[in-house]
Amino acid sequence: MVMDSSHVDALAQKICDYHRLDHELEKAEVILGFGTNDPRVAERAAEVYHEGLAPLIVFTGGVSSWTEGLYRSSEAEEFARIAEERGVPRESILIEGRASNTGENVVFCRALLEARGMSPGSVIVVQKPYMERRSFATFRKRWPEPEVRVTSPRLAYSEFPLPWLSRDEVIRIMVGDLHRIRVYPDKGFQIEQEIPDDVWLAFEELVGLGYGGYLVQ
What we know:
Elements lengths: L4 H15 L10 E5 L5 H11 L6 E4 L14 H11 L7 E4 L5 H14 L6 E5 L5 H11 L4 E5 L15 H21 L9 H12 L9
Parallel strand pairs: 1-2, 1-4, 2-3, 4-5
Helix pairs in contact: 1-6, 1-7, 2-3, 4-5
């Protein structure tokens, strides 16, 4: 089925708007920078640190199928390097270099902090714009005690693609993450979240147009 690209973008924008939470940030005890194939997440974590919103960043992420060959080391180590280049002191950074998915990002960061005698009551999670909601839902399920707010690089939908991440790939990821928001609560991976009818209709249309490559099997 052939579809006008502007219509596809309109459907993707609707899903993108749902994924973004646009939390208003307040001071917290720690920033968690979730590893990903978008290094702008590390830049945003450094920005949040320099705004004085938390005194510590934990970067989390190993080497996943998304980042194998992209970085010189683990996601966490690469993000720490980027943050240091942007003026974050090395002593203000912790590295969790094993996590391979969002649930592990949360669980392993919690374990790392608790091993250092830290039990934060407030956390800022930094993630890609179109993974804000799923990161929030995962955090609330896996670590429900702290207050959590989620932020991301300040990018428009049209700015999401990167040289190694095409616009169609971004749409497939957004569609796959929306499917996870629907099915993961029953698997115990996330809290339940309401999906508006118009957002789900956009999802179904994009799947029908061939953007369902990352649906949960």
